[in-house]
Amino acid sequence: MPTQPHPPYIMTSDPNSFARHTILERKPQIIRQVISDNAYPPEVNAALDDLRNEIASLPIQPLHESAADVTFWNAELSNYAGKTWLEIPWYFAETYFYRKALEAIGYFQVGDRQGRDPFEKQKREQIASDVQKLSIEWEQLSALKPELRFEALLHSCLWGNRADLSNFTVTEKGRGGLAAHEERHLILIDHTESIRKLLSNGVSRIDFICDNVGSDLLFDLGLTDFLLEQGWVKEVHLNLKNQPFFVSDAMPRDVLLMINSLKNSADAAVQGWGQRLEKNLADERLLLETDPFWTTCLMFRQMPEHVRQSLAHSALVLIKGDVNYRRLLDDRAWQHTTRMEDVCSYFPAPFATLRTLKGEIMVGLEPGQAEELQSTDPTWMINGKRGVIQLVSPEQSN
């Protein structure tokens, strides 16, 4: 592989950037929503308000509580001593915000708020709504021939990722099920057929690096059910967050809640889907994995050895969403024509990115393609309208 010079990190200091907007506008909105959704005592609301004020104009402050990860986070923060929230790498700013929010509410401290998800109300509403919507066409989807059903489910996994509860700027709605076919022209890189061929030959294990609850997770479970029932895959591992992160990121409890919602659906076909998932959990064909790495500021090339070794057993890792895409690429401002195979030669297994564009980073395009998109849609990288389904084998780098 040729040596790849590393471009700069995407920074919150970039004027008029989406990165800066997420810190100045989105994070205070998230704090307001958390206060509104939870009956916290005055001191917790005050701590959240202090965090909002810090983001607005003050130097970024260390964690002060006693918790297992405080030493890690404060060591990382020391790289930006004296900086404000608008002078640091974007991904660090976003991840540290969620860790600071958990400190403010006492998530790790003994008491009635220990382990209590501040985003639970929003997640539950999203899960209930999306399960109800999908039940309308699940039976039709299940009746498709396997090749067509696989395509519909894979594309639903992509478009279900469109909106998330931490992003208030994406107006495009997820198109799942049979409607997903109508938006194939919006997939900038589409390796659907290559992925189908790889999986339909039969593999022992695949992994999802999951993203959001709602339709995103729902179609991950739909694709999981299909692959296990068809016998294309022997076991599926869902890599989930161990604590609240980016508002709607899925934790094991969210998966169990969604499966329970499927089992309790009024639709018999959806009930059967939920029952099969529950049985696959019991039979350990569906495994729910967590690791603290997934909720840190570290990039994927910095993954601990035990995570790397686990993923290395997978025939294919399906990497969901915008934030995971950013972590693959170190959240750096690569040229749009950069080959992902070259940047991600470190990854321990073949992977496919299923990502709708909601951040200012994109690689793997043809020369001139980004310029054409920019001329017709100046917000193409952040508005969630377009997506990628890109299969990458790291050994293909040269």
What tags apply to this protein structure?
Rossmann fold; alpha/beta; Transcription Elongation Factor S-II, Chain A; 7-stranded mixed β-sheet; 10% strand
Short description:
The protein is 43% helix and 10% strand. By secondary structure, it is α/β, with parallel strands linked by helices.
Architecture overview:
- The structure is a single chain.
- The protein starts with 17 loop residues before the first helix and ends in a 6-residue tail after the last strand.
- It has a seven-stranded mixed sheet, with helices on both faces.
- The protein is α/β, with parallel strands linked by helices.
- The protein folds into two domains: 18-105, Up-down Bundle (Transcription Elongation Factor S-II, Chain A); 120-396, Rossmann fold (3-Layer(aba) Sandwich).
- The longest helix has 20 residues, at 18-37.
- 43% of the residues lie in helices and 10% in strands.
- Residues 166-177 have low confidence and may be disordered.
